[in-house]
Write a structure and sequence with these properties.
Oligomer: single chain
Distance between the termini: 32 Å
Helix content: 25-40%
Strand content: 15-25%
Strand order of the largest sheet: 1-4-5-8
Length: 186
């Protein structure tokens, strides 16, 4: 991420220099790159892997506290009443059953926008892929892109949003998962 930001800054500096040389700008003014864009996150229709064991999510993808985070998300999404205390939340998380052992995994998340001519443009893409062996037997290193997503409105003090892994597409699926009527995987 820092390399990308550094390159973006160098391109902006060079553009400012060219504008100054051509006389279209009176002085060199460096502005940081805008990090805001109005892209819509989209997934492929089908997952990259249909059923990855939860233990493999921890081992191969480095999702150390995935089960706990998913349970917390389920408990918080089901709570319609008053805000839970920390103790109540932790107790409900302990007794929330995950009635599946595998999940589908997507290795790419695209951020797209629609242009004036109704053409879909890919603004950015996040890649995730664990270490694997190629067809020739050589080791292909893992790739885990870093992404900071501000899903809700962030304030002046930083990001206040939450990072939501798009595992479940509908709220009814969350209710079905937490009540234990889901099959082996989503």
């Amino acid at each position: 991420m820092t390399i990308w930001l550094e390159r973006k800054e160098k391109v902006l500096q060079h553009q400012s220099y060219l504008d100054w040389q051509l006389g279209t700008q009176s002085s060199i003014a460096l502005h940081p790159a805008s990090m805001a864009f109005n892209g819509t996150p989209t997934l492929a229709r089908w997952p990259s892997l249909k059923a990855v064991n939860l233990d493999n999510l921890v081992k191969n993808y480095g999702a150390t506290f995935f089960r706990e985070a998913l349970r917390r998300h389920i408990v918080l999404s089901q709570n319609n009443g008053p805000q839970l205390t920390r103790h109540q939340l932790e107790q409900r998380i302990l007794y929330t059953n995950l009635p599946f052992t595998t999940l589908p995994v997507y290795h790419r998340l695209k951020f797209v926008a629609t242009s004036d001519s109704r053409k879909v443009i890919t603004l950015d893409m996040i890649h995730v892929r664990p270490e694997r062996k190629s067809k020739r037997g050589t080791l292909v290193p893992a790739r885990f892109d870093t992404a900071l997503l501000n899903v809700e409105s962030g304030g002046e003090t930083g990001l206040r949003g939450m990072f939501l892994v798009p595992i479940v597409s509908h709220k009814t699926d969350l209710q079905r998962i937490s009540h234990g009527s889901s099959p082996g995987h989503i």
